[in-house]
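Figure caption, in words: inputs first, then the predicted bound structure.
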Amino acid sequence: MYPAAALVARIPLRPFASLTKESKIIYTAVAAAEATEHMKLETERLILRSFRDEDVDEMAQLFANPDFMRFSLGVFTERKKTVDFIEKVMGWDRAGMPSQFAVVPRAEDAVIGYCGFYHHPEVPGEVEIGYRLHPDYWNRGLITEAARAVRDHAFARLKLPRVISLIHPENIPSRRVAEKNGMTIENQIMFRGFPALVYAMTREEWMAKRDAG
Ligand SMILES: CC(C)(COP(=O)(O)OP(=O)(O)OC[C@H]1O[C@@H](n2cnc3c(N)ncnc32)[C@H](O)[C@@H]1OP(=O)(O)O)[C@@H](O)C(=O)NCCC(=O)NCCS
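Bound structure (coenzyme A present):
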């Protein structure tokens, strides 16, 4: 749950409209080709795969967990909200848009969270990397591992011009994940009534870090 909101300035994000025509074309063409319905990313310990209808039961349990839902608008008390989430992200998959991945440990047949891309009407033109993990698995570096794979996918395969993460200033674990993912604070905005640090990384910054080894 969000702590009490602090007053912060509303600073506009860079809109999609400000991207070059070429970036928009690349984004649209590559996203359509790459963000397919059955996308799978693999890391040392995790499989990140597209969501399926059958994930509703496991996800409903996670969304009902207050720790899993820290820094959100609250737990889901109705199953329909989980169904809506899964339909939304599967709709992004079908539309060829960057989407969320179910996080599955290689050693287990269980969905323990999600990590992937969000699209928010409040921040048009931006693609967010967002994540949540079952609390039993916290602090093992798992979401850092997942978020790195998602970031690399964004830049290497989808050729996105930039990604952001919107994080409440008091959400230290999430801020650490963003920092370990090479993102830096660009500004602070109000997002859905709460302050959010805008962590960002451009494709150029990602390429420079990659080339520096
Ligand atoms: C945010 C979240 C996904 C992180 O997942 P995770 O797999 O535990 O993350 P990692 O283990 O990769 O990294 C967590 C980092 O935060 C640090 N951390 C955790 N709790 C901390 C605390 N109270 N104070 C300082 N650092 C803390 C860990 O030490 C680790 O950093 P380190 O590697 O430098 O030691 C998980 O905490 C979560 O699901 N939280 C609830 C939902 C949420 O807040 N999602 C993000 C919304 S923006």
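The first strand starts at residue 40 and ends at 42.
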